[in-house]
Amino acid sequence: MDNGPAPRTVAELGEFGVIERITRDRRASPAESIGPGDDAAVLAAPDGRVVVTTDMLVQDRHFRLDWSDPDDIGHKAIAQNAADIAAMGARVTGFVVALACPPDTTLDFVDRLNKGMSDEAARADGAIVGGDLVQAPILVISITAMGDLGDRAPVLRSGARPGDVVAVAGTLGRSDAGWAALRAGRRDLTDVIDAHRAPRPPYAAGITAADRGATAMSDVSDSLLADLGHIATASGVAIDVALSALADPVLDAAARELEADARQWVLTGGEDHALAATFPPDVALPEGWTTIGRVEAGAGVTVDGAAWSGNSGWQSFTV
Ligand SMILES: Nc1ncnc2c1ncn2[C@@H]1O[C@H](COP(=O)(O)OP(=O)(O)O)[C@@H](O)[C@H]1O
Ligand SMILES: Cc1ncc(C[n+]2csc(CCOP(=O)(O)OP(=O)(O)O)c2C)c(N)n1
Ligand SMILES: [Mg+2]
Ligand SMILES: [Mg+2]
Ligand SMILES: [Mg+2]
């Protein structure tokens, strides 16, 4: 029997066909858990507490289809959520993914988006256990991540104390540099463009930081200055950052090409999802962490002892 041409778009395959396609490889959920396919998922919460966070990506606000491949968008959507779990000192247990897309979205696009999400979920050691699929005029990906602290105390933004060391794990400023390269049409600057399209946060560093006694932690989504600012405010302390500790030859090379200031990217660029944390002064930093500053008495964030002039990072409603 001739069933006609194979479906090519989500409208042609239909909601339940697409869900079946997306979840086909996701039947294997973690032990004691129930994954996609029922009215809700069930996740084990071994220590009785659940860490939970949500973040969304909106087309033309967080990504552009002419700048990012579908798998990049999938990576980024999972990464921005998993980084918040890691920033609490927790490990990811599961994700639920709500996807809104136009009816002419191709199945190839959905497959690649799905592959990017699955690959990054695997990097974060978590499974995609459910979601939602609806029609919308543009793409929106809204993800909720759940995590488990084991026997650790959560690392809050409020625990930094004067005398603590400030450290980061992961790269800073590369995503912003990549965004600048894309706006300038400089597709050749692949180091920074790749970092913008698909950040790879250092999830394990969040857990090792918690185990090593980190006093406060956050991922860097809006900018180093803005996110350290949240730690400073929540902790009632001042933070001073040493610019020399933030040098990155990849950024310097991109800055020469784009006639830009690498310091601006490192301090005010968002979307790298590096981890920033404070540690007691006598602690040996775990692997992957680099000292970039110090916690002091007072308020606010300074750079080499002085206020940073100009914008300090991304704000959703300013542009
Ligand atoms: N619409 C909302 N309703 C309730 N809480 C929110 C809302 N938006 C943000 N928050 C909370 O405000 C805090 C800061 O949010 P956000 O800046 O998005 O954090 P992050 O950069 O870690 O994603 C988080 O604790 C988040 O849960
Ligand atoms: C098309 C496009 N425009 C602008 C940006 C830049 N941008 C979008 S969101 C963002 C920062 C973080 O976004 P937010 O939604 O605040 O994430 P959260 O802090 O909640 O993790 C930046 C720098 C981009 N990536 N793509
Ligand atoms: Mg958020
Ligand atoms: Mg965060
Ligand atoms: Mg933000």
From TrEMBL:
What region holds the PurM-like C-terminal domain? 161-253
Q: Where does ATP bind?
A: 131-132, 157, 221
A single Gene Ontology biological process assigned to it is:
thiamine biosynthetic process
UniProt-annotated binding residues for Mg(2+) 3: 39, 84, 219
Q: Which residues form the signal peptide?
A: none
- Determine the domain of life of the protein's source: Bacteria
Q: Which residues bind Mg(2+) 2?
A: 55, 84
Q: What PANTHER family has UniProt attached to this entry?
A: THIAMINE-MONOPHOSPHATE KINASE (PTHR30270:SF0)
Family to which the UniProt record says this protein belongs: Belongs to the thiamine-monophosphate kinase family.
Q: What does this protein do?
A: Catalyzes the ATP-dependent phosphorylation of thiamine-monophosphate (TMP) to form thiamine-pyrophosphate (TPP), the active form of vitamin B1.
Q: What is this protein called?
A: Thiamine-monophosphate kinase
Q: Which organism is it from?
A: Antrihabitans cavernicola
Taxonomy of origin reads: Bacteria, Bacillati, Actinomycetota, Actinomycetes, Mycobacteriales
